[in-house]
# Entry
Amino acid sequence: MTQVPAERVAGPLRSATRSPILRILGRSFLVAVAVMLVAFSLMRLSPGDPVVVLLGDQATEENIAHMREQLGLNGSYPEQLITYVSGLVKGDMGESVVFGVPVTTLIAQAMPVTLQLMLVSILLTVFAAVPIAVYVALHPHGRIASLFLIGSSFSVSMPNFFVGLLALLVAAVWLKIAPVAGIVGNLPEAIQYLWLPSLVICLALVPILARVLAASITNTLREEFVEVAIVRGVRGRTFAWRYLIRPSIAPTLSLLSYIIGSLFASAVVIELVFNLPGTGTLLVGAVAGRDYPLVQGIVLFSGVFVVLVGTIADIVTVRIDPRVGR
Amino acid sequence: MIILLILVLGLVIPQLSPYGAYARVAPALTPPSPSHPFGLDNLGRDIFTRSFAATHLDIAVAVVGVFIPLLIGTVVGALAATTDLRAVRGVIGLLIDGINAFPFLILALGVIAVIGTGALSVIIAIAVTSWARYAKLARTRAAVLRDLDFVSALKLLGYGRTRITVRHILPNCFSETAAYGVSDFTLVILTVAALSFLGAGVKPPTPEWGSMMADGRIYLQSAPWLLVGPGIVLTITAFGVSLIGEALKERQSG
# Structure
């Protein structure tokens, strides 16, 4: 390819970016900075003065000044940005207006619930999606494949809060096989509270993952090494893993940050439906209460989290599939 | 087809219905019956009428919520790919990736927290968050087009960059982003309803699927029909839209 001379021209500064992993890390750092700037600008989008919105018209000068300080709205925008960034570096996201505690404390309290919900959901999704994808890719014209196509369009059209409420009604109220709401303890014993909400989340994710994976496997099937394997008589699990799934993982992994993003978003809705005290419930409460620092903190956190997962996925992709990133 | 049917029903049912969308017709929480197919809600309003009366608002908000970011995103993305200024390209590229990193619903909630609730806010929140997805598509497409022979030919013919971008590259980008817009429609419809469900969108008493279902949530055990009605209409609408998207995709790929 013509990339080699281009890199040579770029000179010594560019030579460090030749390592794919360093390049990924550099890019992710820049995106994380962009994410932070978006979160910073978010609060300054307000059409009115957020301090007046929060305190009302009757606030005293002193209160206003104090609130301004608390929200980090003193000085010009560059000055505010410096205050914000230096706070973040120290792990300080400001103080919740409603609760009067540091935002980081609140997020740290709510995070385990969300993480466990996401973990169970993603495991369920992978376990369901991989066999479906392999089957659909191997039998693309079968009845199951067309059923899967229609079914997947339908299941992504179901609003997750509707499915969640129906699931609550059927499983918790009628069949009584799941607790009505809430969560006690952590995994693994908390699984009895998490399986139903995770199932609801995974219903919308399985089709997305399975479709991409199936398309990717279909492409892999056209590769010569797969034909060679078939001719050589490789069968069963070795064939499925080494010749079908592993080479097809790379395009799927690049989808991972998207999946984590939608997982995070559905967690917001599902936590509310199932009364789980995670970051989603925290965010909805913060939006209703106009708790700007808390909203900003959670929004920033979700963005950085997605970037982080995306970075890891990119690095794993390079490691697992040597064809990528060269 | 399904969408057309829903739209027509959305127009006709509130007119034909003997009950108004805001009228309290009978005792609250009456279960479904022939005269009230979806039952009555906690204020004694006919859910069937309200579910279809919500169609306009929900679909209108979603249409605008797809169209505005489609327009902004395509133009910004195409310009970002065709400009010669590396700094502009880099900054816009980072902004696009930065916004795309956020989970859609969460950033939209963040915007609403700042600008307040209501139908207009929902549109703004969706526009602020989703233009970047269109811009990313348009940028990729424009970058490919930029290096194609016909663009070089246009340059040789002496056309300026503005003319080439506006007359030749932009329309090409639009055909791609518009196709994505159709499949994005499903997501936007669901997001509009989800935002209202979370109390961050359209407020009661306006008939809206999400807020109707939020109202019905507390009656889950005693009167589940409060959320089943609007839920079904919403699901059918979203499914109809996604079928259109699938059909378009199939036609495109031949």
